[in-house]
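Not sure how to ask, but would you mind making up any protein sequence you like and the C-alpha cells describing how it folds?
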Amino acid sequence: MGTNPRFQSDSTDPHHESVVPTTLFRGGTMVVDGSVTPADLFIRGETVEAVGQDLIHGADQIVDASGLLVLPGGVDTHV
C-alpha cells in the first residue's frame, strides 16, 4: 500500500517534540464566517491555533490542502 502524497511528517526538525499532536493544512481554500480565502490552518490537538497565509509551524503532520475546501470548526449538518 502506497503513501498518500497529501500527507507528510515533519521529520526535518530534530528538536520538534510534541506532547499534543499538531497538524498544518497548507494551501487550502478556507471558509470562515462566510468568507472564502486561500489560507493555511494550524491545529494543536483539537484546537485551531492559527489561520493565515504562509504559516510557518513545525507540525507532526503536514497536509497539502491545495484544491480543497477547509472548514475549521465546521459542523456536519447531515448528521
